[in-house]
Amino acid sequence: MVSRRQLLAGPIGAAAVAALGRADGAVGSGAASEARVVVDGRPDWGAVRAQFRMEPGWVNLAMFYLASHPRVVREAVDHLRRQIDANPLSVTAGLSLPDGPTGWPRVRAALADYLGAQPEHLAMTASTAIGLGVVYNGVRTRPGQEFVLSDNDHFTHVEAARLAADKHGARVRLCSWFDDPARTTAEEVTRAVREQIRPHTRVLGVTWVQSSTGVRMPVRRIAEVVRQANKGRGEADRCLLVVDGVHGLAAVDEDGARLGADVLVAGTHKWLFGPRGTGLVWVCPQALDQVRPTFASFIRGGGAAPLSPGGFLAFEHAFALPVSVAFHQRLGRTRVADRVTELSTRAKEGLARIPGVTLRTPSAPGLSAGITCFSVRGRSDEEVVARAAERRIRLSHASNENRPYPRIGTGIMNSPDDIDTALTAIADIAR
Ligand SMILES: Cc1ncc(COP(=O)(O)O)c(C=O)c1O
Predict the structure, then answer these.
(1) Could you give the 3-state DSSP secondary structure of residue 30?
(2) 399 CA → ligand 1 middle, Å
(3) Pick from 186, 197, 238, 347: most CB atoms within 10 A?
(4) Domain 334-430, what fold?
C-alpha cells in the first residue's frame, strides 16, 4: 500500500529533476511576462511594478507585510488551481507548471539554489510563525537550559520560544542588543551577544532584519561569537543560532544558508513574493540531529524533510514557489537588494531632513535593509499611520512590539516618486 506521503513525494520524479536543470529560471506561461521585466539585461522597474495589482490612487509602502502576488505567480497559481479543481487526485498523481512537473522536490531545489543551500537541508512550512514553532518545539533541550532572544524580535518568535520552553522545562531570557537602534553598531551588538551567552544557553534567537526597528543584525559576526562560545561544548550543550530571516530573504543580497546560522526560518510570502501561506526552515547539516520533528511530514526523505508539517495544504500556492524564485533570479538578487537599498536610503535621507521626525533605523545600508522606522514628535505612532492613510499613503507599524514605530517599507514595486510623496505627507503631519 502506497502512503499518501509517498504519493505526494513520488511521482514528480525524473521529469522534475529534468526541469530543475533550467539555469535561466524562466517558468512556463510566466516566462513571457517575466522576460519583459528585464530589458537589455537590466530590470525595468516600471514593468516590475506593473506585475503587481496595486490599488490605484494609493502609495503603498507596506507591500512587504504580506506578498502581493506578481503576475507570473498569479498565473502559476491559477494554472495549478485548475488542475486541482478538475481532479483533486492530481495532487498525488503529479501537478505541473507549464514547463514541467512541480512538487516538493522542485520547490526545495529552487529555494536551495536561491539560498546557497542543499535541498535536503530545507523543510517546508506555511509561514515564519509555523517554522519558528517547529524549530523551538523540536530542539533537543534539557530542563534548566535557556533560549535567549531580544525585546525587538517578533512576537511569534518570542512566543514560539516561550511555549516550547514551557514544555522543555527551559526558560526564555530576553535581552537588549542595543540602546538606540538608529545609532547601533555591529560592535555594540556583538559585545552584548558575547556577554549574554551562558553555559546553559541552548538557543540564541535573532532576527536578520527586525520588523520593529529596521535594524539588520550582523548575523555573520554574531555567528562567530556563538562559535567561540561553543568551544569545548558537547552537542547537547551547544548554543544554536536560530535566525528569523523573513525580512532579509530577497531584500538582502546574501546566501541565507551561508550566514553562519544553525537554523534559518523565513516565510517566503513577504519579500520573495512567494504565494501566500508558504515558508521554509533551513537547518545546517551539523544541527540536523538537534531538531526533532513535531508533525507527520508528507515530504519524503531524510535531512530536514521530516520537519515539514504535513497534511494537505494549498498546493496551488506551495508548488508555485519556484516561479517566485525564478522571478527574483531573473531580476538578479544583487539588483533587487540594490533597489531596495536605493529606495530606503532615499526615505532615510528625506526623513532625516524633516523637523520633528526622528529616524529609528540605522542610516548605514549595512545595518538596515528595506524597513525604515521613524517617529514624529507630538504624534502617536498610530496617529502617524492613520494620518498618512488619510492622504492615501499606506505605512505600517509593527504590532505587538515594544514601540510600534511607523514604518516605510521599500519594495521593488515602489518608485522614488512613492518615497517623495510619502515624505511630503510626513512633513505635513510633523508640522
Ligand atoms: C520579523 C518577523 N518575524 C515573523 C513574522 C511572522 O511572519 P509570518 O506571517 O510568515 O508567520 C513577521 C510578520 O510580519 C515578522 O515581521
Answers:
(1) helix
(2) 11
(3) 347
(4) Aspartate Aminotransferase, domain 1 (3.90.1150)
